[in-house]
Amino acid sequence: MPRQSKRCSNEETIHNMIISLLVEFYEKLGFEVRADHLGGFRECPDRIGSYVPDLLVRKGGDIRVIEVETRSTVDTPKTRNELTQFSSAKHKLVLAIPHECLEAAIQLRTSLEIDFEILPCYPMVRYVGVAR
Fold first, then answer.
1. Is residue 3 part of a domain?
2. Which range marks the domain in which residue 77 is found?
3. CA-to-CA distance for 94 and 88, rounded, in angstroms?
4. Position 85 pLDDT exceeds 80
5. Collapsing DSSP states into helix, strand and coil, what is residue 25?
6. Is residue 82 within 8 Å of 59, Cβ to Cβ?
7. Cα–Cα distance between 18 and 123 in angstroms, integer?
8. Which residues pair with 118 in a beta bridge?
9. Which of 68, 72, 76, 126 sits CB 3.0–4.6 Å from 5 for a disulfide?
10. Is residue 66 part of a domain?
11. Rg (CA), the chain
């Protein structure tokens, strides 16, 4: 059953840590990175449908739309709508989650019948796992 979409402050911190981790990760791989939620000097991704993705990364013709979710938001109506709309952009779609949300993310992908990559992250040790 879908959960509430409001994150507690601890989850909001984890969400923002994952975004920062992914910015570093993709920049080291040579991608141009646009990121929401960081403020300051970084350009925000463009809206896709009704939503702005957390990250949009580009390296030549390789464009990835990345949404970051946490335990309380991984399977909510809003997340389902975001992923559905982002999948229409015809770019590679990535759902980044804390590693403990992997099973819920796999179930979400199956129920939505949308092809997206699941990227488990370990924000406390600043590590990006293997895409699934």
1. no
2. 9-128
3. 13
4. yes
5. helix
6. no
7. 6
8. 95
9. 76
10. yes
11. 14
Task: Judge residue 105's burial from the number of C-beta atoms within 10 Å of its C-beta, 0-12 exposed, 13-18 middle, 19 or more buried.
Answer: buried
| CATH code, 111 | 3.40.1350.10
How many domains does the structure of the chain reveal? 1
**Domain contains 2:** no
Q: Give the 3-state secondary structure of residue 98.
A: strand
Helix, strand, or coil (residue 35): strand
Residue 2 pLDDT exceeds 50: no
This prediction's pTM: 0.90
CA distance 58 to 30: 9
* Residue 63 tokens, joined: 């464009």
Q: How far is CA 116 from the centre of its chain?
A: 11
User: Which tokens go with 6?
Assistant: 């409001």
Instruction: Provide the CA 31 distance to its chain's centre, in angstroms.
Output: 16
pLDDT above 80 (res 12) = yes
